[in-house]
Design a protein that fits this description.
Blueprint lengths: L1 E3 L8 H9 L7 E5 L6 H13 L4 H19 L19 H12 L9 H10 L3 E6 L4 E5 L7
Length: about 150
């Protein structure tokens, strides 16, 4: 099972994760990736998202396109970098990824953030084994072994 960038958009990501385990066969694995607690974009965008989620998606997407073009070069300058706390955008060097991640931070109703220990505990609580912390924050992989009673 792969859930990359989805669970943090549910009302209760941990419960949503648990609901996936029933579909995992013995010997199967599950990999998830959720928003990183502490990431500037996802933490600071919460202030603006209470307004942005009410916007028409086409309008919001247009605003994100403009912001990602104009603000990215400004935020790369040492002094102006501090402004990212007021109007956060993703700082990926590729424009398409920057736009995708920025729009994804402002458009969904639900967008929670998580830590590795928190998500790791989801796997342990559900008796998954062979846990791997993956490079993209926060991403974890685990397996359902034959001796589990889930």
């Amino acid at each position: 099972i792969f859930s990359i960038g989805v669970l943090h958009h549910t009302p209760n990501p941990e419960e949503s994760f648990k609901s996936l385990i029933q579909y995992l066969k013995k010997g199967g694995s599950i990999s998830i990736s959720v928003y990183n607690k502490g990431a500037i974009l996802y933490e600071w965008s919460k202030r603006l998202r209470k307004h942005s989620i009410k916007m028409n998606h086409k309008t919001l997407y247009f605003i994100c396109k403009i912001a990602c073009r104009i603000l990215y070069p400004l935020y790369r300058l040492p002094i102006l970098k501090l402004l990212i706390h007021y109007v956060p955008i993703d700082m990926h060097p590729n424009y398409d990824w920057r736009l995708l991640n920025t729009f994804d931070a402002y458009s969904p109703v639900h967008a929670s953030t998580h830590t590795y220990p928190e998500v790791y505990n989801w796997f342990k609580t559900n008796q998954l084994t062979s846990l791997d912390l993956l490079p993209a924050p926060v991403s974890v992989r685990g397996e359902k072994t034959d001796n589990e009673k889930i």
